[in-house]
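Shipment paperwork, digital attachment
Item: protein structure file
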Amino acid sequence: MTTSQRLPEGAARRCHHVVNPLHSLVYFSPDTHREFTALGVEDRPSVNLAARSAAFGRVGAGVVAAAFYNYKYELVARHIPAVWDTVTPEDALVARLRAADATLRRLLGDDAVASPEMAEAARLALRATEGCTRGGRPLYAAHADLPVPDAPHLVLWYAATLLREHRGDGHVMALVQAGLDPVEALVSHGATGRGMTRKWLLATRGWSEEELDAGLDRLRQRGLLDAEGELTDAGITLREELENTTDRLDAAPYEHLGAAGTERLTELATAFTTTAFTAGGFPADLLGKG
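Attachment content:
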């Protein structure tokens, strides 16, 4: 299918929510840490930053911080580009793919990896990526230049990567338009109950308690959070507008896939993602208002 089709309301977002974890689980996987440790990269921030930014090649911290948006620049600069003195971006990409293979096999099982459903999901997800566009989307564009793997479960992981970064790049556009800086974006997302907990923000994004609290204060001054840190009506509206804008900017791959294909990919990905969550693919305290 190569012509656009209107989708049922919310279909693209529902598909994203179950496809995205099939990529992002690699960043929480012990298999990833093991692969990078074998290459001499042992601390977790370096592993995380190298694994996700390797598609850019050996670039400076500014490029990575701009594309990631909600990571503190100083955290990125402590690891990028220094990590490339230990491992090349090319070797990092190979290590990440090996980790994806090991992680999916461990969490889903060899039968699921070799199943017709896996092959079908891979075909559908890869077809959806044909509708993605590079303009203004640095993380998507960098990953779109990488070769497509051979094995179906890795094709699905690769396609999930492209779909994740395509939506993420569009979401950054929406955040900038809404006037939310990186900290405000994290804090307001956390207030929805669907973002990272403060524990994980502190552990992974580089911001201090004081900087997160200052972001809370700024959002209160804008009338987006109340005294308890909960979203006000204006805050709820803003967050929903952000997601609606992101949906609009990310509609093309799912319109290209079509309503029936998007529904089927959502069904297949839901089963795989549910199995991965049940098998402990993500930390239990990763998301929420805590």
